[in-house]
Design goal:
With 519 residues, the chain is of the alpha+beta class. Helix content is 29%, strand content 25%. The N and C termini lie far apart (72 Å).
């Protein structure tokens, strides 16, 4: 099934939509001010070593020094290369994790093998060290670093300082040995190529040999460019920035079914061409510059789909609908017939609604990027063949997802449980925040409930204090109710406590907010 990729670029934000058969299947966003540092590789300078904490502060050119713990150093650094005062014998080779300047040589002596050497025997102040960001700076804390470099590709992760061939633990154990042998055969370096280890990612389980070979070539070329930069640039320096969204489109989203990649920025089109020409030449012919008068996302109503993807209710063409609720632990999807009455009997109505829902749910999971546990409540079906047909259709639609999914059968309660791998924040979390009025609950107290809360609060205050007057400051809806239907209760409380109660409307308050002022 052919797909088109649309890229809408602006200085502040890049948006990508994947379209199949005229329907938006995926939306990806990246904002300039929110782009993190995770995955970036730097040539840092050790600014301070802290033996008591077994850690070091590394200057990588940011406002705050980054943090490196001894556990994140290469395991073989100590055995091969120590600080000047504990220098190993002269035949030791410098590991790729360390790029040194001219350092005075200390008298050579053999180090006693030690599986865990203290950090002060492994690195020293002023040393240049190649590091990678594990965690972005948060608050007053600097970035968290590792000296164990890894470079992610589309199908593989490259470990330039290791020779290990690994397979994702999410791939069934029975397939791992065969996959490991296959990767071992394909990644054997030719003369002059970088060696190193590889980890087969989950989405590479069904990849062809040619796709794996192309990914290996891309990763090795990237590493050679990083090593070359580390010999030319003075520390601190950025050696490798993790790919931006447009580059990740070429790496992660483009496949044999991709018909075109259209972008609406001439400058970014040129940059994507240069990137594709160097690393992914097979994608070069699919790149197109969009010069139409209409905004590129208007071609397939992408913005409308994004707005609908932020809502709970999804209408089905048949008249049925879905209700999708995303919580912290899981996502629930409820299927309803709504106004669909087109089938000959109720069983057929339910069956057809569930079939359409199976297709719509798979699309909504991709569009909203919902991950983790998903519980689907299809409409109850009495016939076993209907349940099997709906489950088969659901699994068929999920198989189109580039993210790994696992689906069970119908439970005793008639629910379908599934999981979808979390790859990034969901669309709702990226574009929305909890409502300031309801605090993310999705509902607020009724004005009458707030009125009764206020009456109880005044009674409590009257027993503890003796003011001249109570003044209620609340939203217009609450004040209007006090002046109309609840006026008798307010007057009765005023008589009971022997104090006047005045009202003040405040339009900036939400329905649940109020103040009781003692005058």
């Amino acid at each position: 099934m052919g797909q088109d990729i649309l890229i809408n670029w602006a200085p502040q934000e890049t948006r990508v939509a994947v379209v199949e058969q005229g329907a938006v299947q995926e939306v990806h966003l990246e904002r300039a001010l929110e782009r993190g540092l995770v995955g970036n590789i730097y040539l840092g300078k050790v600014s301070r070593v802290l033996p008591g904490m077994q850690s070091a502060f590394i200057d990588i050119g940011l406002d705050r020094a980054a943090f490196l713990h001894v556990a994140d150093l290469m395991p073989n650094i100590a055995a091969k290369h120590a600080a000047p005062r504990d220098r190993a014998s002269s035949d030791a080779r410098t590991p790729t994790a360390i790029v040194e300047g001219t350092v005075p040589q200390a008298p050579a002596r053999v180090l006693t093998p030690d599986p865990v050497l203290p950090i002060e025997r492994q690195i020293f102040e002023g040393q240049a060290l190649m590091v990678q960001v594990l965690k972005d700076p948060i608050g007053t804390k600097g970035a968290r670093l590792t000296a164990q470099i890894s470079i992610a590709g589309r199908l593989l992760v490259f470990l330039p300082q290791d020779n290990h061939i690994g397979v994702s633990q999410k791939i069934p154990p029975a397939q791992r040995d065969a996959l490991r042998q296959r990767v071992q055969r394909l990644v054997t370096p030719a003369e002059g190529q970088a060696s190193g280890g590889f980890i087969l990612r989950t989405n590479a389980e069904d990849a062809s040999d040619q796709e794996l070979v192309d990914d290996v070539a891309y990763l090795r070329k990237t590493w050679l460019r990083i090593k070359d930069a580390s010999t030319r640039l003075p520390a601190p320096a950025l050696l490798h920035e993790d790919l931006n969204l447009m580059q990740r489109v070429l790496r992660d989203l483009v496949g044999v079914d991709t018909l075109s990649i259209r972008i609406d920025s001439r400058e970014q089109f040129g940059l994507m061409q240069a990137f594709a020409r160097e690393f992914m030449p097979d994608t070069l012919g699919k790149l197109q510059l969009y010069t139409g008068e209409r905004p590129i996302f208007d071609l397939f109503n992408v913005d409308e789909d994004i707005v609908r993807a932020l809502g709970r209710r999804v209408e089905l063409k048949s008249g049925g609908y879905l209700v999708i609720d995303q919580t912290e632990a899981l996502t629930t999807v409820d299927v309803n017939t709504g106004g669909f009455v087109g089938a000959r009997n109720f069983d057929d109505t339910v069956f057809r609604t569930n079939l359409e829902a199976a297709q719509a749910i798979a699309r909504q999971l991709r569009l909203r990027n919902l991950g983790g546990i998903v519980i689907v409540d299809f409409i109850d079906m009495t016939r076993e063949e209907h349940r099997e047909a709906v489950l088969t259709e659901f699994r068929k639609q999920l198989s189109r997802d580039r993210v790994k999914t696992m689906t069970g059968g119908f439970s005793q309660l008639g629910l379908v449980e599934m999981t979808r791998k979390r790859t990034r924040e969901s669309l709702a979390h990226m574009l929305s925040e909890p409502c300031s009025a309801c605090g993310g609950k999705g509902s607020v107290k009724t004005p009458r409930s707030v009125c009764y809360d206020i009456l109880r609060e005044i009674l409590r205050e009257a027993r503890a204090f003796n003011p001249r007057e109570f003044r209620v400051v609340a939203s217009p809806q609450v004040i209007e109710l006090f002046l109309d239907e609840e006026s008798q209760h307010l007057a009765g409380l005023s008589d009971f406590i022997g104090k006047p109660i005045s009202l003040q409307s405040e339009g900036r308050m939400t329905q649940e907010q109020y103040d009781i002022v003692l005058l």
